[in-house]
Amino acid sequence: MIFNSFIFLFAFLPVTYAVFWSLRNADQRYVWLTLTGYVFYGYWDPRFCLLMAFSTLVSYFAGLAFLKYESPHARKIILIVPITVDLLLLGFFKYAGFFTRVAADTAHAFGVETHFPVLDIVLPVGISFYTFHTITYIVDSYRGVIKPTRKLFEFSAYVSLFSQLVAGPIVRFRQIEKDLENLGSADRTRWLYLGASWFVWGLVEKVVIADSLAHYVDAGMLDAHKLDTGAAWLVMLGYTFQLYFDFAGYSNMAIGLGYLFGLRIPINFNSPYRSLNPSDFWRRWHISLSSALRDYLYISMGGNRGSEAATYRNLMLTMLIGGLWHGANWTFLIWGAYHGALLVAYRFTAPAWDRIPKWAAVPFMFLLVVIGWVVFRAPDMSIAMDIYRAMFTWTPGDGLVDADKFAVLIVLGAVFAIWMPNCQEVHERFRPTIRWGTAAAFMMGACMAIMAGGRSSPFLYFQF
Amino acid sequence: MSSEASVVAAPSSGIRAWIRTLLVLGVFGFVCLVGGELFARLDDWWFADVPFLSTPSYNDLFMEDELGRRGKPHAHFEKWRMNNFGFRSPESMTQTPGPSTVRVALLGASETFGLYESPNHEYAAQLAKLVAPQDLEIVNTGLPGITIHTLSDYWNNWVVTFRPQVAVVYPSTHLYMTCEDDLPQQDAPKEAPKEAPKASPPPPKPRSFSIGDLRLIARAKNVVELPDRVVEWRNERKILAVTSQHSASWLYSKPPQICVDAFRADLEQLIDNVQRAGTRLVLATQATSAAVTPDSAGLRDLESFRAFSPRAPALVLRQFIAQANEAVRAVAKERQLPLVDVDASLSGQRDNFGDLVHFNDAGAAKMAKLLEAPLTGIGGELKVTSR
């Protein structure tokens, strides 16, 4: 089930909402949120629910063990075992096929023929996200940042919370711990209008903007190896904005849904295409992932506390793993390496880079990001290289169908993404007025019309 | 006294609040519909070049002129797009096939044109992909509602001018079920009016606005499916409206032989016409979701088609299709024409159909696969001959 579907908007959400607020205490609401989370998730494939339930139980019991055992040795074991289990699950479902292929290719390169079984494993939707949720819970419990909960359903409601289950934001337990504890006394009306407004804003970003761009981007990528120079730039600029509005739209809907159920989910995007440098970009793009990578990986590896060389190594490793987290493909690994290199380059040249005036730094950084999205979008390196070749050497061709319309949409996307206030900036001054409600109702109708036209598509980040 | 007043006042203020809430919700609902309608039009205009203020319909895809009824060049409606010659085929088509290309015309009604399949999944499109490496060009000349009888004129006046070297005939045999009655064309989609609009003057008369003109309503139909029971009930009412005007003896108790004979005669006539043009022929039998001895689901599909031929009870309709298919087999044998027995391969496999006779994506894929081998064989022979 996806947010931009009629079954979600007209059946799942109203029923979940009405029953949730008719329940009287927190414990009942935990159970309800868990149940609805599993219904939401099981809509793809009920078998996936078993996997999530297993991962939830492993982390929950790890939390209980942290409460019971205090010796450093025991706590280390409690840290390592469940994380290993979680990572093995993720590794098997997401990376087994990739690493088998890599091993076979490497052996072949050395003249050794292998007969590894071809693993065609179905990737459970959102496994990367909820694995991250459970791992951050275990690590925070180990570090004493949070006190693990004894309530199974409070924890399972956190893991299976449908609003952020399959594509984030990656919400840490500590970020919504208080709201979860106060769920029984939450005020339905306090966040209702704000939540509805965030949700509609996100839906517009996804359905009206991202899906419109997707129409042209997908058509261009069908024959990516035939793109001429202009078309290659249009397709990649289009994808740059499509990806942003798709994922930011999803995140804003998730935040809005959180408000509707009395939970404040942290923001995930902050106008990333206004970034001045790579470091700034990662403080604005997929904030929940980049901060989690920083806190749980980069800092754990030593962060910038060692030598410069060690810092560069930590940056590169963090971004490589971050790239691989997006998918089991060389393209993601190279995308991660590219951003790692950008971060290293920025760290190396920060004094000079920071002196670049804003009017030049923003487009320069934007260009670097677009270059990175090529390898992120391409299904394999050969197509990525075709697109790079078309972008950076003069390549004639037939161009794209309706390129003028596509260009107009890209300009509109740029205006909304870079110059217009973003969702949180707009909602800083939010007051539930009739005018606001009218605008939201109008745009809700617009989104439904487009969805009914069959042009709406699943969220890009679901594949991760 | 004051407490009494407050008791009286409380419900009325409560009612006022309710009325206010309902009013606000009503206004929001109306604004939501306005936004939906405007964006539906904007979406159609932007992505499908449909004029903002027009009222598009399925019949926009077709025209009628001195050459007869045929597809309208460059027309499009929802998922259907016609090419430069008014066929549901790629825009790149030329009047005459290239020197190394063997052109194959697929002749048929809406089953060939495509109804339930997603874009580019009708059997013609799927077949085109399969046989493209052999330099076979597939042209979907399907025309919804066309019978084998009218197909002859359509061939002579229009299709033959594109010089296809091969023609595949996939007949809609069920259209002959009503040959004794003067009923209009039957297998056009439900939303399509019964008569095709004229492409030439007189211009369409201005008409008053109806709720069906709203694009939002058309889009909502894509999403909202009426429950089966409601659809069946509406169908039963339609049938009853016709049958109640006749005595019980008016209903067929067995397939009318005169209609089977008419179908066969028209088929033979079409074959003569096609062969006269030097075009090779492949015949196909018609498959239905209902087997000859239908299960309950098959019976429901047959019943749903009774709206088009109320005179024929479900089982009689199926028997008629079976007899018409026998006629196709017999003609193919007598004239030594290649036959693709789609009926034998797909009939009764409900997963392959959107209704009684129209394929879904899966069915269209199987149909394409069935045609692939005979067509590549003929294509190979033609290339050898031309050398």
Describe the structure.
The complex is a heterodimer of chains A (464) and B (387). With 464 residues, chain A is mostly helical. Chain A has helices spanning 6-22, 26-42, 46-68, 72-109, 127-143, 152-160, 173-181, 192-222, 229-260, 278-284, 287-298, 308-326, 330-353, 358-377, 381-392, 403-419, 423-428, 434-452. In chain A, helix 9 (229-260) crosses helix 15. Chain A is globular. The relative contact order of chain B is 0.13. Chain B is of the alpha/beta class and 387 residues long. In chain B, 46% of the residues lie in helices and 9% in strands. Chain B has 11 helices and 9 strands. In chain B, the strands form 3 sheets. In chain B, strands 6-5-7-8-9 form a 5-stranded parallel sheet, sandwiched between helices. Chain B has a two-stranded antiparallel sheet with strand order 1-2. A two-stranded antiparallel sheet of chain B has the order 3-4. The model of chain B is unreliable at 1-9 and 182-204 (pLDDT under 50).
Task: Please describe the structure with a list of short key phrases separated by commas or semicolons.
heterodimer, A: 464 residues, mainly alpha, 18 helices, B: 387 residues, alpha/beta, five-stranded parallel β-sheet, two-stranded antiparallel sheet, disordered N terminus
